[in-house]
Design brief:
The complex is a heterodimer of chains A (about 550) and B (about 100). Chain A is of the alpha+beta class. Chain A is about 50% helix and about 20% strand. Chain A has three domains: about 1-190, PAS domain (Beta-Lactamase, 2-Layer Sandwich), CATH 3.30.450.20; about 240-300; about 305-535, PPM-type phosphatase domain (Phosphatase 2c, domain 1, 4-Layer Sandwich). With about 100 residues, chain B is α/β, with parallel strands linked by helices. Classes of the chains: A alpha+beta (about 550), B alpha/beta (about 100). The interface of A and B includes residues 399, 476 and 480 of A.
C-alpha cells in the first residue's frame, strides 16, 4: 500500500507538468490564431486597398469630368460613354472586381453615371440606388465633397468587400463624380484557416516530440534522483548502528544534487550525534546502576529489622531514613554496646549524593567502633572528630547525636555535635531539650577546638527515663521540609505534631510524624534526606 | 536563588548575600567568597537578607573562614537573620565565626 501511494505521488509530478505543458500549447495555439488572423486581415486589407485603388485611379484618370457633368445634365449617352463603359467592363472581367462604378452620391442614394459588374448587367446612366447595409455612404459623400480618396473594408450582405473611392475632377477642378472599385475579400477566412491548420500541425508535431523528451528528462533528472533521495532518507533513520553515513548516487549538477549533498551532511551529523548520544546513554545507565547499588549498600548498612531486639522487652526502638537522592548523607545506627547499654546515633553529613554517602559511611563506622570501646558519648565524639579531620580535604562535616541508654537504670547519656535538639516524652507530653554546645564533627580540628570557645566542644548530658518515657531524634530534613513557597516545617510544628500523636510508641510515632510532614509540604518535592529515630523505655526489672 | 553583591571599601570587602544559601547556590557562592578572601584582608558577609543556610552553605562559609585564617585576615558575619542564626547555633558554627 505504501509503495503504491509513493509511486502515485511520483507520477503526479509528471502528470501535473504534462498537463501544464498541454495548457501552454493550447494557450500558444489560441494566441497564434488571434494574432495570425489580425495580421492576415491587415495584410489582406492593405493588398486589396492597393489593388482596388489602382483600378479606381485608372478609371478616374481616364474619364473626362466635364463629360460626366454633361451626361448627368442631359441624360444622353454618346460614343465616348460607350467607350468608357467597355473599358470598365473589361477591367471588371479581367481583374475580377465585384463592382466598378462612377457615381454622384446624394443624400439618400447614389446616382449612377457608369457601372460595371461581375456577371450582371450594368446599371444605366442616371439609375438610382438607395443606401443600404454597411455601405459607407458617409465615406462616399466625404470623397465627393472634399476630393480626397477613401478606403473602406466592410461586410455587406454576406460578403467581405474592400471599396476604394477616388474623385473625378472637371476642368474647373471641382469634383464631378467619384469612382468606386469594390473587391470581394473571400480569401481572408480561408487563408486564416490554412495558416491555423499548419500551426496546429506543427504544434502537435512539436508536442509529440517534446513530451517524450520531457518525460525522459523529468524521469532522469528529477524522478529518479527523488526516488534515490527518498530511499536515502529511509536509510537515514532505518538503522542507527550502521558503520558509515549514507552516500547518495546523484550527480545531476543541479539543485537536486545539492539537496543530496545536504542529505549526506545531515546523515553524517545525525550519525555522529546518535553515536555520541548512545555512549552518553550507556554511561548514564552505568552510573544509574552504580547509584542504585550504592543506595542498596547504604540501606543495608542501616539496621532495619523490626522489632530490633525482640529479646529486650525493656525498650522499643525504631528508625528510618529516606534519602532525597539515590544515596544520602543522613544515617542512623543503634547497637548494643554490652548487655546493659544501647547506643543510638543520628547524623547528617553536609552535602548530598555520593561524596556525602561515603563520608557518612566512614563516620558511621568510626562512631560504632569508638562507642564499643565504652567511652562516654562526648569522648567518642572528640575521638571521631580527630579521626575525621585527618585528610578531610573536601572539608565536609557531619552533625551527630550520640546517646547511650543504660537499660538497667533508664539513664540516657548523650552528646551532640551540631545536631538537632532532642525531643523528650515524659509525663504524657513532648518537649524539646536545650542544647549543650558542640560543633559538627570535622568542622574544626582538635587544635582549633582548643582555640575557640568551650561551647564548640560536645558535652555529656544525662536524663533519667522512667518507664513509658521516650526520646525522638531526627535530622534537618524533618524541620526543613518545605512547601513549594519555602515555608519550613520547623521545630514548633514538629513539637505540635508530636503532641498530637496518638502514641509515643516509636513504631507508631515515626510514621505519624512522617505523615504530618507529607501533609504539610503538600506534594512539594523532598529536597533533603529525612531521618528519624525513636526509642521508648519500658522499664527494667530493676526499677519497675 | 541567591544574589551576591560586593561592596568594596579599601582593604575591606563586604558581600551582601540575598536569598538562600543551599546545596544549589553554595558552589557559586563559595567561588565568590574565596575570591573576596583572596582580594581583601577583611571580609564581611552581610546576612541581613539571607533567609536560609543549609549544611552545604555552612561548608562554603567554613572554607572561606579557614582560608581567611590561613592568610591572617578576618572574616565576619554581619546582621545575621534569625533563621540563619538558629542554624549556626544548632550546628555549633556560631562559635567559629566572628559575628558582628
Amino acid at each position: 500500500m505504501v509503495k503504491k501511494g509513493k509511486s502515485a505521488k511520483r507520477n503526479q509530478i509528471a502528470m501535473v507538468t504534462m498537463i501544464r505543458l498541454i495548457l501552454l500549447a493550447v494557450g500558444l495555439i489560441v494566441d497564434i490564431s488571434i494574432s495570425t488572423r489580425y495580421v492576415l486581415q491587415r495584410e489582406f486589407t492593405e493588398t486589396f486597398a492597393d489593388f482596388s485603388f489602382s483600378y479606381a485611379r485608372m478609371v478616374a484618370d481616364k474619364i473626362d469630368g466635364d463629360a460626366v457633368e454633361r451626361y448627368i445634365e442631359s441624360g444622353e449617352t454618346d460614343a465616348y460613354y460607350d467607350d468608357v463603359q467597355l473599358t470598365m467592363q473589361g477591367m471588371v472581367d479581367h481583374a475580377e472586381l465585384r463592382y466598378l462604378y462612377v457615381v454622384v452620391p446624394e443624400e439618400t442614394g447614389l446616382v449612377y453615371v457608369w457601372d460595371a459588374q461581375m456577371n450582371h448587367a450594368p446599371r444605366p446612366l442616371l439609375d438610382k440606388w438607395e443606401y443600404s447595409g454597411n455601405y459607407p455612404s458617409e465615406g462616399a459623400k466625404l470623397a465627393y465633397q472634399t476630393g480626397q480618396e477613401q478606403f473602406y473594408a466592410y461586410h455587406y450582405k454576406g460578403m467581405d468587400i474592400a471599396t476604394a473611392i477616388t474623385p473625378v475632377f472637371d476642368s474647373d477642378g471641382r469634383v464631378a463624380a467619384i469612382v468606386e472599385a469594390d473587391i470581394l475579400m473571400p480569401r481572408i477566412h480561408t487563408a486564416t484557416r490554412d495558416v491555423l491548420t499548419s500551426v496546429l500541425f506543427y504544434v502537435a508535431l512539436i508536442l509529440l516530440v517534446t513530451i517524450p523528451m520531457f518525460y525522459y528528462f523529468t524521469r532522469k533528472r528529477i524522478l529518479v534522483p527523488l526516488e534515490k533521495l527518498s530511499k536515502a532518507a529511509t536509510g537515514m533513520v532505518g538503522y542507527l548502528d550502521k558503520e558509515e553515513a549514507i552516500s547518495i548516487d546523484i550527480h545531476t549538477g543541479d539543485e537536486i544534487e545539492q539537496v543530496a549533498r545536504d542529505f549526506e551532511e545531515m546523515d553524517r551529523k545525525l550519525l555522529a550525534y546518535v553515536r555520541e548520544n548512545s555512549s552518553i546513554t550507556a554511561e548514564n545507565e552505568r552510573i544509574e546502576t552504580e547509584l542504585n547499588m550504592a543506595a542498596a549498600i547504604q540501606a543495608n548498612m542501616l539496621p532495619r529489622a523490626y522489632p530490633a531486639f525482640p529479646n529486650r522487652p525493656e525498650f522499643e526502638i525504631c528508625a528510618m531514613m529516606e534519602p532525597a537522592k539515590e544515596v544520602g548523607g543522613d544515617f542512623y545506627d543503634y547497637f548494643m554496646v554490652d548487655e546493659d547499654h544501647l547506643a543510638m546515633v543520628v547524623a547528617d553529613t553536609s552535602g548530598k549524593g555520593v561524596p556525602a554517602a561515603l563520608f557518612s559511611m566512614i563516620a558511621k563506622t568510626l562512631l560504632k567502633m569508638c562507642t564499643q570501646t565504652r567511652l562516654s558519648p562526648e569522648r567518642v565524639l572528640a575521638e571521631v572528630n580527630a579521626s575525621l579531620c585527618e585528610n578531610n580535604e573536601e572539608e565536609m562535616f557531619v552533625t551527630v547525636w550520640l546517646g547511650v541508654l543504660e537499660i538497667s537504670t533508664g539513664e540516657l547519656t548523650y552528646a551532640d555535635a551540631g545536631h538537632e535538639r532532642l525531643l523528650l516524652y515524659q509525663n504524657g507530653a513532648w518537649r524539646i531539650l536545650p542544647k549543650a554546645g558542640g560543633i559538627a564533627l570535622a568542622a574544626l580540628t582538635p587544635e582549633e577546638l582548643e582555640l575557640v570557645d568551650d561551647a564548640a566542644k560536645s558535652h555529656n548530658q544525662t536524663i533519667q527515663l522512667n518507664p513509658g518515657d521516650a526520646v525522638f531524634q531526627y535530622t534537618d530534613g524533618v524541620t526543613e521540609a518545605a512547601m513549594t513557597d519555602r515555608t519550613l516545617f520547623g521545630e514548633d510544628r514538629l513539637l505540635e505534631a508530636a503532641n498530637s500523636a496518638p502514641s509515643a510508641k516509636p513504631e507508631e510515632f515515626l510514621p505519624y510524624i512522617r505523615a504530618q510532614i507529607d501533609a504539610f509540604v503538600q506534594g512539594a518535592p523532598q529536597t533533603d534526606d529525612i531521618t528519624m529515630l525513636g526509642v521508648q523505655f519500658n522499664g527494667s526489672e530493676n526499677n519497675t | 536563588m541567591l544574589n551576591i553583591d560586593l561592596v568594596k571599601q579599601g582593604n575591606e570587602g563586604e558581600l551582601m548575600l540575598v536569598g538562600e544559601l543551599d546545596v544549589n547556590t553554595a558552589p557559586g557562592a563559595e567561588t565568590i567568597m574565596l575570591d573576596a578572601v583572596n582580594r581583601f584582608d577583611r571580609v564581611i558577609l552581610n546576612m541581613e537578607r539571607l533567609t536560609y543556610v543549609s549544611s552545604a552553605g555552612l561548608r562554603a562559609m567554613k572554607r572561606a573562614n579557614i582560608n581567611m585564617r590561613r592568610k591572617g585576615g578576618t572574616l565576619a558575619l554581619k546582621n545575621v537573620s534569625k533563621p540563619v542564626m538558629e542554624v549556626l547555633e544548632l550546628t555549633g558554627f556560631a562559635v567559629v565565626f566572628k559575628i558582628i
